[in-house]
Amino acid sequence: MTVTLSDVAREAGVSLATASRAINGSANRTVRPELRERVLAAAARLRYSPDANAQAMARGRTTALGLIVHDIADPYFSTIASGVTAAAERAGLVVTLASTDRDPDREMAFVELMQRQRARAIIVAGGRYDDEAANAALAEALVEYRSRGGGAAAVGQPLLGVDTVVIENRSATAELARQLHGRGYRRFAALAGPAHHLTAHERFDGFRGSLAELGAPVDPDLVVPCAFTRDGGYEAMEQLIARGVVGRRDDPSTSVDAVFAVNDVMAVGAMAAARAAGLDVPADVAIAGFDDIITLRDITPSLTTIRLPLADIGAMVTELALAPDNESPRLVPVDGEVILRDSTPPRS
Amino acid sequence: MTVTLSDVAREAGVSLATASRAINGSANRTVRPELRERVLAAAARLRYSPDANAQAMARGRTTALGLIVHDIADPYFSTIASGVTAAAERAGLVVTLASTDRDPDREMAFVELMQRQRARAIIVAGGRYDDEAANAALAEALVEYRSRGGGAAAVGQPLLGVDTVVIENRSATAELARQLHGRGYRRFAALAGPAHHLTAHERFDGFRGSLAELGAPVDPDLVVPCAFTRDGGYEAMEQLIARGVVGRRDDPSTSVDAVFAVNDVMAVGAMAAARAAGLDVPADVAIAGFDDIITLRDITPSLTTIRLPLADIGAMVTELALAPDNESPRLVPVDGEVILRDSTPPRS
DNA sequence: TTGTAGGCGTTATCAT
DNA sequence: ATGATAACGCCTACAA
Question: Cys staple from A233: which of A199, A270, B41, B176, with CB 3.0 to 4.6 Å?
C-alpha cells in the first residue's frame, strides 16, 4: 500500500542503499548527481514519504522533544510553550505536549511515555509544589531518563536535579516591595496563594523579607492564603474587606494601604472584590500583582506587576534541554522586571 | 546498551514472542500467569522500556496526533489546545504541537511532517485567510494525508475539505446586533479586522446583516479595517475619535453610540483608546467584543461579548479527527453565546 | 500455551 | 560511487 524506499529504488533502477543516500544526503554524500536526480524524480513520482519511525529506529535517535506544563490554557504556560515550539522548530525537533494539571502521576506517566518514544529531551515547565515525595519521584524519573541518554531541563525551582531556568521570584518581589515602599506604602496585606505552592511562597517571601528590612514588616494576620486563581484573589480580598482591614481610606479602622497578590489574575480578582465592595482602587487601596499577563495590560487602573520574559524562558530551557550532557545541573537565573503602574500611585 | 525485549526474554527464560505477549497483553492474551509474572519481573529488574518507534513500526500504527494552531500563546488557541490534549490523553494519544504563526508554508510543512511520523490524525485549528491558493494547497495536502489513512479535522471555516467544527460567527454576531439594538443602540461603528481574515469578516458580516434587517444599517464609513490585535483596536478607535464620529455624548457631531470590535482584545484596545481620549465607556460610547477571553472577564466596565466553548471545541475536533473515515466532510456547527455586560448598558 | 521466523522501512557497514 | 546485507526492536502469523 504505502510506498517505501525500496519502491523508489526499483522505480529509479538503483539499489536501496543508493536511494537512501540520494534522498537523505547522508554523511558521506557519495552519489552521482545523475543518479541522485533519478532517485529524487522517482520519489516525487511515487509520492514517497519517508517513515520517520523507521528512520528513528535505524538511526537510533528521534526528533521528538517532550514538554510538560501544568495547564496549557494558562497564558503563563502557553507563552512559555510558544518559546519552546519556536526553539524546537529551529532545532528541527517536534514538540510533544502534555498538560498535566499539576498531577504528579500524570507528570511521571508522561516522562515514562517520552522515555518510550525515545524523545531527545524533556522540558518540565512550572513551579513545583512543596511535596518532597512527588518531586523526588519525578527527579528520579528524570535521572533515569537522562541515564538513558535523554536531555532534561526545567523552569521554575531547581528541585528536579536537572538544568533549570530559575525564576528569581524572591528578588523580584523584594524589589517590588522596595519600590512600593519608595512610593510611600507602609501597611501591606498579601494574598499569598496556596500553602504548598512554592512559587507563591517564594513570591510572598521575597516581598515580606524586603519589607521587614525596610522596617515595615507585614503583619502575619494580613497574609491570606488562597487559591492561585482569580477567584482565590477575589475571596481573599473579600475576607480582608469583611474584617475591616481594607476599606475606605478615610475610615480610621482601615489598616491596609496596599495589597500584594502573588499573581496577576489574583490581583484582578482582588480588584473586582474591592469594586464590588464599593471601594476605589487605588484611592482606597493599592494593588500589585505578578506576571504582567499581556491581555491584562489594559485594565483600569493599570496594574503594577512584575514582568517575566516568558517566551525567552521557553527558548532558554529548550537550549538547556538540548545541550550536550554535562555534570552538575546548570542553573540559569532569570529576573523579573518591576513595572509600576497606576494601581500603586505615589502615596501622598 | 539499552535493554531490549530480547534481553527481558532471556532473563525470564522465555522466547521473545512470549515476552512480547506478556508485556503488552496483546489481542489474544494467551500466556500462563506464572510465565507472565516471570517476564514482568524480569522487565522490572532490567528496567525495560518498550521502544515506541519499534512498536509503531511493527504494528503499523502510531500513537501521535498532530495539532496545528496559529499561535499557541493566544488564549483562543491555547484553550482549544487544552481541550485537544485532554481528549487525546483519553484516547491514549500523544499530541504533537505546531505553532505556525499563520504561515501557510509552515502549515504545509507540518502536515508533511506529520505524514512522515505516520500520525493518526491532524487537527488544524484557527480561521483561515481569504487566500484561495494557500487554502487549496493545504486542503490538498490533507487529502493526500487522508488518502494514506490519516484522519483530519479543522476548527473554523469549512474550507479544507475535512471534518470541521464550524464556528458560527455570523449567527452569533447577528444575535449580538439584535440584542444591542434591543438595548437601544442605533448608530454603530465596527472595528472590522484585517481585510482577508475570514473570521473577522464573518463576524462583522453577521453584525452588519442583522442591523440592516433591523433598519439600522452600518454606515460603510464607520467600518474601520485594522489588525486583529489589541493595537489594531486601539488605532482604529483612535481614528474614529480623530474623525469626530466617536466623542462625548453631548457633542452633537458625534454620530456613533456603539462600537463593535471583532474580538475582545481589539475591544480592550478600543476602550483604552477611548479612555486615552478622555471619553467614558459606556457613557460616551458603548463597546462590544467577541471571544469572552477568561482573563478579561473582570475588566471595567465588564465587556459585552460572545462566548465560545473553546475547550469543548478542542475535544469535539479531536473526536472528528479520530472518527473512522467517512465520506463527505461532516460539519459540526458551534454557536456562540451573547453575553451582555456593562460596556453596553440599555440606552436611554 | 509457547516458540520460530518473517517482516515493518531505514540506515549503515561492508565489500566490490 | 554503488550494491548487498546485516542490524534496529518489536509484533504476529504460523507451527509445534
Answer: A270
